[in-house]
C-alpha cells in the first residue's frame, strides 16, 4: 500500500459514496487509476467492506449514561457545583423522588466513563448512586 492507496482510503472514509470521477478529481488521477486501485485494495483485503455511518455513530460521546445520586443532608447545591466542574458531566438535573440529582455523562471509552463514575462517587456528600448506560436513542 502506497501513499495514493492511503489517500484513496482516507477519501472513502470521508465519503464512501463518492463516485470514481469524484475520487479521481480529489486525488488528481484518472478514473481508471482509481478503479484499479480500489479493486486491488478490495482483493487484497485492505478494504474489508463498505458501510454506512449514522448520526449516532459519530457522536462526540460514544459512551453515555445517566448517574442518579443521593446526596447527604442539604449538600445538593455544593454537589451540583462540583459535578459541573467535571468535563465529562454534560448536565446535572435536580429531581424529586429517591434520587436528589441526575448527572448526564459522556465519555470516549468505557474506561474513561468508569473513571468519571469513580470520581463522582468520591465527592463529599454523595452517599449512594446508580448508573444506567444509554444503549440507543430513538429520537
Summarize, please.
With 139 residues, the chain is of the alpha+beta class.
Describe the model.
With 139 residues, the protein is of the alpha+beta class. The protein contains 5 helices and 4 strands; from the N terminus they run αααβαββαβ. It has helices at residues 3-14, 20-27, 31-43, 76-84, 110-121, and strands at 63-71, 89-94, 101-107, 126-133. Helix 2 crosses helix 3. The radius of gyration is 23 Å and the shape is rod-shaped. The mean pLDDT is 92.
Descriptive terms for the model:
139 residues, alpha+beta, four-stranded antiparallel β-sheet
Main sheet: which strands, in order across?
2-3-1-4
| Strand segment count | 4
Mean pLDDT: 92
- The fraction of residues in strands falls at 15-25%
- What is the terminal-to-terminal distance? 41 Å
Work out the helicity level. 25-40%
Number of helices: 5
Q: What's the order of the H and E elements? A: HHHEHEEHE
C-alpha Rg (nearest Å): 23 Å
Residue stretches low in confidence (pLDDT < 50, at least 5 long) are none
Content-based structural category:
alpha+beta
User: What sort of overall outline do the alpha carbons produce when their principal axes are compared?
Assistant: rod-shaped
- Main sheet? 4 strands, antiparallel
Topology:
Blueprint: H1 3-14, H2 20-27, H3 31-43, E1 63-71, H4 76-84, E2 89-94, E3 101-107, H5 110-121, E4 126-133
Antiparallel strand pairs: 1-3, 1-4, 2-3
